[in-house]
From TrEMBL, chain A:
Protein name, per record: Carbohydrate ABC transporter permease
TM region positions: 34-55, 92-116, 128-150, 162-185, 206-231, 263-283
Compartments, as annotated in UniProt: Cell membrane
Organism: Cellulomonas fulva
Matches recorded under InterPro entries: MetI-like, MetI-like_sf
Domain called ABC transmembrane type-1: residue spans: 93-284
Membrane topology of the entry: Multi-pass membrane protein
Coiled-coil annotated spans: none
Automatic annotation (TrEMBL), chain B:
Species this chain originates from: Cellulomonas fulva
Keyword RNA-binding: no
Domain ABC transmembrane type-1: 110-324
Matching InterPro entries: ABC_transporter_permease, MetI-like, MetI-like_sf
This protein's UniProt keywords: Cell membrane, Membrane, Transmembrane, Transmembrane helix, Transport
UniProt keyword Chloroplast, yes or no: no
Compartment(s) of residence: Cell membrane
Top-level taxonomic group: Bacteria
Protein name: Sugar ABC transporter permease
Signal sequence annotation: none
Length: 298, 345
């Protein structure tokens, strides 16, 4: 977390990596079969549970009880079609999507707005305000969860609403967003700003027309991280959401405890719940990795 | 870690912000904007202040309302006996803290958290490093491989937990079946139902979930080790193992240390996976500080106790973070960074 700020460094070394790619580490050749064997084991252990879940969704409970480790024979589609025709599943998915979109929008908009003066204006309280956000990195959401629950459900009366989840999630995602974005905005050359000023742009005009387009990659990174966090969140939705407004993780947990004896059904429900996240996140994988990499690089 | 971050940024900002003043030559007016009194403030300075306020306000409001305020309230609640309704009048001083720290379940939870911190690092660091070193070469399908490694991390803990819950089901679960193939038998109540194995089973599932993240980050760190070092070592006739031990691992130091820090903070806050797999049971064998405080708060409505537990959780995290920063991460801001920067050029 220390080095989260060093995004420029990360970006620079990333481009170095690309250059280096051609003559990459062919230093240590040999032992190739061993490597392949190792890689296969890693893949099997990693994907095994996921594939097992997906395949088990195509079996009946009788099949599962008879040979828990077998392949579907015959393949049964009823579990999956049952989930897909279950209106609750779609409601959960819709709630998750809307909450994640609101959270992401809030984080990106508020984050980049705050990061702009903190990066490029000179004023007395700049470092102080920045420190407030940096310290925010230290506060685990768990610590604040009970008062947050009371604040949202009782004081603000937003207990069962999308906004009631999205607002606090965005607030907790702000520190890391600002800490990633600030150096990103600082790295934009001053010459550009001067040129914009000579052409008569105000600071706000510069922000809109030049800074925002240029910081696209940084915004995507923080946006993806916020989306991931919101989509996977469990604790806050668990406390605040009931029936109609539940998200997918809550839906999965409920389904698995309510239909504990219907293992095949649970596998089908869980596997389908994985899909949107997997598709979105794997498409964005490079972004997630570079975001995390920026956070860990020394 | 906080001061380190500001130190870096502080060092970087003067260079970048000197030119941000829009009107050339108005630099003399700027200090006046910061120092009240004395100087006449012109319209530009006022406008600038308004701009700053308008830009920073949404984030600050959101942050204070939903992060700072609840944390302050948590500290306040921790001094009261409160069931969650009615006025906050029953001030009990430090009594909640005393009862939390004398509560065997909470002390057990604290121990479990610390075991998870140590186990995550002790298991994932060598394993992740080994796999990253093995995979750090040009090979066909490398991109696919990296994507696959990342899959468990992308799944939510709840979804991953539910799949493992089914797989670990006693007798009919696939894990017990596979053990049967080699003549072994799982515990009667299942791995998650037996207090002797439950915590380690949770740790095993967490390893599956988070090892991929470690591997990906280590691989990313390995990318930034300059090839020249490897070439030089090869010319000197160093063996593969010598190269890894003398070059790769030291150069990876900062990545490893920062990863370990993140892993530590995450382990202290662990909630989702435990809640799904065991709910803290059996017989509190897997409670963590987070599951303890949620159980106290939401199921028993002991908001004072729950808040005291959350403050203790925060203090433990803070103390470990500061110690870690002081003894381990501090090295990175000096020696290692210098070496790495030199090496990069």
């Amino acid at each position: 977390m220390t080095a989260t700020t060093d995004v420029r460094g990360a970006a620079a070394s990333r481009s170095q990596d690309q250059q280096r790619h051609g003559r990459s580490t062919n230093v240590m050749n040999g032992g190739s079969p061993l490597i392949w064997f190792g890689a296969l084991i890693v893949v099997a252990l990693t994907l095994g549970p996921v594939l097992y879940g997906v395949l088990s969704g195509f079996r009946t409970n009788a099949q599962l009880a008879e040979s828990p480790a077998g392949l579907p024979d015959p393949w049964v589609l009823s579990n999956y079609s049952g989930v897909l025709s279950n209106p609750s599943f779609w409601k959960y998915a819709l709630n998750s999507t809307i909450i994640a979109v609101i959270t992401t929008a809030l984080v990106v908009i508020c984050g980049v707005m705050a990061a702009y003066p903190l990066a490029r204006y000179k004023f007395k309280w700049r470092e102080g305000i920045y420190m407030v956000f940096v310290l925010g990195l230290l506060f685990p959401a768990t610590v604040a969860i009970i008062p947050l629950f009371i604040l949202i459900s009782k004081d603000l009366q937003m207990g069962n609403t999308w906004w009631g989840i999205a607002l606090p999630q965005a607030a907790f995602a702000l520190p890391v967003t600002i800490v990633i974005l600030r150096p990103f905005l600082q790295a934009i050359p001053d010459e550009l700003e001067e040129a914009a000023q000579l052409d008569g742009a105000s600071r706000i005009g510069f922000f809109w027309r030049i800074l925002l387009p240029l910081s696209g990659p940084g915004l995507v990174t923080v946006g993806v991280l916020a989306f991931v966090g919101s989509w996977n969140a469990y604790l806050l939705p668990l406390l605040l959401l009931q029936s109609e407004t539940k998200t997918l993780p809550l839906g999965v947990a409920d389904f698995s405890s309510e239909h504990a004896s219907d293992m095949a059904g649970v596998f089908a429900f869980t596997s389908l719940a994985m899909i949107p996240a997997l598709v979105f996140f794997l498409a964005m994988q490079k972004r997630i990795v570079s975001g995390l990499q920026g956070a860990v690089k020394g | 870690m906080a001061d380190d971050a500001t130190a870096r940024v502080g060092a970087a900002s003067p260079a970048t912000s000197t030119l941000t003043d829009p009107v050339p030559g108005s630099a003399s007016a700027l200090p006046g904007a910061g120092a009240p009194g004395g100087r006449r403030r012109n319209g530009a300075a006022v406008r600038k202040r308004l701009e700053i306020a308008a830009f920073v306000a949404p984030a600050l409001i959101l942050f204070f309302l939903f992060v700072v305020w609840p944390i302050v309230k948590a500290v306040q609640f921790s001094f009261y006996k409160w069931k969650g309704y009615g006025p906050l009048v029953d001030f009990v001083g430090l009594k909640n803290y005393v009862s939390v720290l004398q509560n065997d379940v909470f002390i057990g939870a604290l121990q479990h958290n610390l075991i998870i911190v140590v186990a995550s690092i002790a298991i994932q660091l060598p394993l992740g490093l080994l796999i990253a070193l093995l995979l750090n070469r040009r090979m066909r399908g490398q991109g696919v491989l990296r994507t696959i490694i990342f899959v468990p991390y992308v799944l939510s803990e709840v979804i991953a937990g539910v799949v493992w819950l089914q797989m670990l089901a006693p007798r009919y679960g696939v894990i017990d079946t596979m053990l049967g193939w080699v003549g072994l038998q799982g515990p009667k109540q299942g791995f998650l139902g037996d207090p002797r194995y439950a915590l380690w089973t949770v740790i095993a599932v967490l390893t599956w979930k988070y090892l991929g993240l470690a591997i990906i980050l280590f691989l990313a760190g390995l990318q930034s080790v300059p090839d020249e070092l490897y070439e030089a070592a090869q010319i000197d006739g160093a063996s593969w193992w010598q190269i890894q031990r003398k070059i790769t691992i030291p150069m990876l130091g900062p990545t490893l240390r920062t990863w370990a820090f993140l892993s530590m903070i995450g382990s202290l806050q662990l909630f989702d996976m435990v809640w799904i797999l065991t709910g803290g049971g059996p017989a509190n064998a897997t409670t963590t500080m987070a599951t303890f405080l949620i159980t106290e708060g939401t199921k028993r409505s002991n908001y004072g106790i729950a808040s005291a537990a959350s403050v203790v959780l925060f203090v433990v995290a803070l103390v470990l973070a500061v110690l870690y920063q002081y003894f381990i991460l501090r090295r990175d801001s000096t020696a290692t960074t210098v070496v790495r920067k030199k090496a990069r050029r």
